[in-house]
Amino acid sequence: MRAEVLLHLGHTLIAVDKIDEARRELTSALSLASELGLETISMYAENMLGKIAEKKGMTGEAVLHYRSSLERYEAARENVRETTQQLGFAKSLPVSFGALARCLLKLGKIEDAYLVSEQAKGLKLIEQFRLGKIELRKGMTPDEIKKDDELGMEFNAAQQDVNRLQSIKSAPDVRKNAIERLRNAELNRAHFRNDVYVRLPELQTKQARDKPLTLAELGRTLSRTTPNSSSCRTSSTKPNR
Amino acid sequence: MGQFPDAHASAKAALDLYTKLDYKRGIAQTDAFMAMIFHTYGKYDEALRAYEESLVQYDAAQDGYGFATALFSYSSVLSSAGKYARAEELFRQCLINSDKLNTRRCERKCYSISATP
């Protein structure tokens, strides 16, 4: 709890422009979180320390903090087992990526900034493709897929019914029943999918096979295709002769 | 699933039950849960009121750890609501509480990602 309190205190102090105090508290939070292996707190602390450095005009130091924040993000994500949570967790990512790219641009490191923005885009896309809803269906038996389809169709029909009733004048009872039907359809489908998920532990530990790329792997992939910005531009705009 | 009315109604039912039983820790936990729901939906005034009630109940139940946790959450809501001076004051109080309770033993790698700023 102490590391978490220090983090929130730092956040509050930044809001009231007590920058030096904030820095002190966040450094304590980072140190404690590192000691205890609390990667998420470390990630946020590094991000805020980056913001402080940026405010003070220390762009080079800000870059180091933002990079460290992204490394911590990778480590923290490793600890998030469930795929939907991993996707939700990725929502917090663009802040550090954006800030890092901005600082690199300030330092005139245009290629590095480009690489960072591509990494951000790539990571998001790959996570969405690899960790989408298809995962769950892959673990279903043919009968379960059929059942899932039926529940999906019932949900869509109920949704359409509600939409239709909203656009015309209808009796309150009819609308209430339609909404009730939609809610039941949604719940039935959610319960069914939840049961499948809980019953199939391999879906929960499948990360080794379908593991999203790490930032380092992405970086390697991108640096192979973008050795420098001019060659990248040449290859993409001029046809080979 | 984002169903505020359902969550609120369930919490309210739990609160009524605990009140009938006069189980203070249960009341405190449910108040804190309701406050969390309000916070999630940006209803800061309601969240603050619910946390205040939770703190009173934790105090009555003499649950030091529950009180410390609720105080921390209360401070977070104050910060979200832009009441920074009071939030800062209470966060500092939380640090003193954490020293007293030696909460470091409670910190683990499985820290919840939802409780971050």
Radius of gyration of chain B using CA atoms only? 14 Å
Helix content of chain B: over 70%
Please state the oligomeric state of the protein chains shown.
heterodimer
What would CATH call the class of chain B?
A: Mainly Alpha
Helix content class of chain A: over 70%
* CATH topology-level fold name of the largest domain in chain A: Serine Threonine Protein Phosphatase 5, Tetratricopeptide repeat
**CATH-defined fold name of chain B:** Serine Threonine Protein Phosphatase 5, Tetratricopeptide repeat
Number of strands of chain B: 0
Termini separation of chain A: 64 Å
Going by helix content, strand content and strand pairing, the class of chain A is mainly alpha
Briefly characterize the structure.
Chain A is an all-alpha fold and 241 residues long. Helix content of chain A is 80%, strand content 0%. Chain A has 13 helices and no strands.
Please characterize this protein's 3D structure.
The complex is a heterodimer of chains A (241) and B (117). With 241 residues, chain A is mainly α. Chain A has two domains: 2-128 and 211-225, Serine Threonine Protein Phosphatase 5, Tetratricopeptide repeat (Alpha Horseshoe); 140-199. Chain A is built from 13 helices and no strands. In chain A, helix 3 runs parallel beside helix 6 (93-106) and helix 6 (93-106) runs antiparallel to helix 7. The longest helix of chain A has 28 residues, at 172-199. Chain A is elongated, with a radius of gyration of 24 Å. Chain B is mainly alpha-helical. Chain B has one domain: Alpha Horseshoe (Serine Threonine Protein Phosphatase 5, Tetratricopeptide repeat). Chain B is 74% helix and 0% strand. Chain B contains five helices and no strands. Chain B is flat. Classes of the chains: A mainly alpha (241), B mainly alpha (117). The A-B interface holds A 1-9, 11-13, 15-16, 32, 36-41, 44, 76, 79-80, 85, 89, 92, 190 and B 1, 68-69, 72, 75-76, 79, 82, 84-85, 87-88, 91-92, 94-95, 98-99, 103-104, 106-111, 113, 115-117.
